[in-house]
Amino acid sequence: MSNSPKKLKFNQYFSIKKKDLDKAGLFNISLVADVPLFIDPFHLFYSKKKKYRELHDHIIKYLVFLKENSVSFSGQKLPTRIIDSYYRFPEVEQNWFGFSFVGNKGRGLGKKFANALNDNFIELFNDFGSGKQTNHLEKITLITDRVGKDTISDFTTNLILDYLATETEKFTKKHIDKKSTREFTIKRAEFDFDNHVWKPKRYILPAFNGDYVLLTPKDLLTKEKIWINKDDLVKDFENIPAAIPDNVLRQQLSAYFNQKLREYEKTRLNKKTNKPEGYHTQETKKKAVMDTLRQFRQAIDVYIKLKEQKGDQAEKISLEYVASTEAFLENQFTRFAENIDTSLTLPTSYEEALNRAKYFKECVELHDNYLNLYVGDEPASEDWIQRMFWLVWYGSLSDLNREPKNGLGMPDFTASLGKKDKTLIEFKLAKSKSLQDNILNQLKKYKEVNKTENGIWVIVFFTLEEKEKVDKVLRNNNLESDQNFILVDARKDNKVPASKIKS
Question: Which residues contact 51 (CB under 8 A, 6 or more apart)?
Fold first, then answer.
């Protein structure tokens, strides 16, 4: 198969009709980079489909199994053999969902996840599975900062892997040419609760670059956040006491929360601040909420019950997220890819990075691709624009990597041709409030951490005001003639579509 970027999506690569995927309720994934969607286990819990509810019961059963193991090691670190056997899972790269821009490589679940889950079982949810409280995997995201939506999605995916593989196999046998399929063994497909071991299983699946591909039902997916999440818990915490039927408990919880809020606020006011007394920052509120939840664990179950009662909203919002993501992938993302040149390889990573950044600028400014950087009248997210930027690297001999920001010196992109030839690429929207600070300090820090002198900025602006802002920052810092700053003009109001230009 050709490595052409024109074959971005599953249906294109395997020569099938998209309507067949739609009829089966399966998402038409990209096969060049992960799509930023995630599986939300709440959709299993709330579903009218019996099979989905059974899958949720299976997840809870496995969590109860893990909890029973954790009790045996109360006050101790989990042994490596336990972590490896029951907690450690690879990221399921084959479904092509997540954060990765370059291909579909992820990190998987390991010690960090295992210890977070174990700590929650011992300290907070020791009666999990007893019937005394609500049972949701997402509970572990509400107290700890160590587990996010991607982790929950990865864990859920691993626990329903047999279902996803079976559904993909059914679709494969019906719609895909046998020449494009293979029999694959998935090593950890099913858990044997009797013998406490993971068992392998074989499936006929689509074959792509030596690996299999998994398809996922659209109605399991979400984008921005899973339905049961910490941000909503903190934001709507004032609604929780009102939902507690016990008057004494309600008053105790409210009093404790307000006391903690005052304590954190007093601490904040003792520091230099321009905020008035009585103003509560999101951070002080979050601290007060977390303290209250540790003291009154019942509040977590009250919050979850409130979210369960609004399950229809979860389905509606997620369907809208998935539809908009799919539309962007089908339209703007695809159109951008149709006009790119893949033959831009140059001798060094720096020369290639600079040339491809300039080519991205050319694609946007001179070939009507600025239109593909919008969703309706609004600019696309930085996340999606970066994914488009990655498309101009198709066919490159350089190793292009992109990692989620972790505060440890990771740039947006790293291009390399061996260990000693490395170039960093930092991507920014001009509207960023921290643009100047980032320009002066961020890339410099990344260069130091990554031990390279080569760094390039790609800055995209959508209005005249944003352009003037960038120009001023560069001018004030004597950087306006620096070739390492590539400014990309994505304005609509200053361009004549190429189709209307007379020769």
Answer: 163
Burial of 369 (0-12, 13-18, 19+ CB in 10 A): buried
Segment 267-324, tens digit of pLDDT: 765 555 555 444 457 788 888 999 998 888 888 889 999 999 999 999 999 999 899 8
**CB of 117 closer than 8 Å to CB of 87:** yes
Cα 255 from chain centroid? 37
User: What burial class does residue 2 get, using C-beta atoms within 10 Å of its C-beta: 0-12 exposed, 13-18 middle, 19+ buried?
Assistant: exposed
What's this model's pTM, rounded to 2 decimal places?
0.79
* Token pair for 410: 């990771």
Which positions ≥6 away from 99 have C-beta within 8 Å?
A: 34, 36, 106, 150, 404
All structural domains of the chain: 10-228 (no CATH), 230-296 (no CATH), 339-500 (3.40.580)
Residues contacting residue 325 through CB under 8 Å, at least 6 positions apart: 35, 36, 37, 223
**Residues 118, 364: Cα–Cα separation, whole Å:** 49
Q: Tokens representing 425?
A: 């690429």
- Alpha carbon distance 104, 91 (integer Å): 9
Integer Cα distance of 293 and 290 in angstroms: 5
